[in-house]
Amino acid sequence: MAETILYSVATSLINSLASAALHEFARINGVMGELERLKNTVESIKAVLLDADEKQEKSHAVQNWVRRLKDVLIPADDLLDEFLIQDMIQKRDEPHRNKVKKVLRSFSPNKFALRHKMTNEIEKIQKMFDDVVRDMTGLNLNPKVGVVEKTNNEWRETSSYVLESNIIGRDDDKEKIV
């Protein structure tokens, strides 16, 4: 049960990392590479959560790993929410500035401070994820193909575009198409 929640948090985190708003904000603030690395790490962890669910009943080490993972996933999700809020604040204030203020604002010390803060926070979270991944390799957790029940709060997206990370167990079909 806890892994289903963690699986949902990991999925939410990946969706946030893939969102257009966060990509734009990261590109403007020069932290795109750090966010891509973070996304790849979370995707790797998400792949083994179903196996961890099965093994945690028999292994205290896996239970401890799941607990440590939770202690990293939640702050990472909060950090991305904070970045998205900063982006919304900047966009809200944007129409009220004239062109001179926009140019001056782009060289503002606040912008450099925000970039520095973002980089430091992302690196701190990434280090915590790296520790979790390092511990994961010692637990012999394997990626599992499976379906996790969707909760009611997930809305249905109607689009022909699907994130590759949302496709589970369709590798053979994908290879036939490609």
From TrEMBL:
State the Gene Ontology terms under molecular function: nucleotide binding
Q: Does the keyword Nucleotide-binding apply?
A: yes
One Pfam family, short name please? Rx_N
| Cited InterPro entries | RX-like_CC (IPR038005), Rx_N (IPR041118)
Coiled-coil annotated spans? none
Residue ranges constituting the Disease resistance N-terminal domain according to the UniProt record: 10-95
Keyword Nucleotide-binding belongs to the record: yes
Q: Which UniProt keywords apply?
A: Nucleotide-binding, Plant defense, Repeat
What superkingdom heads the lineage? Answer: Eukaryota
Single biological process term from Gene Ontology? defense response
Which named protein is this? Disease resistance protein rga4-like
Q: Which organism is it from?
A: Trifolium pratense
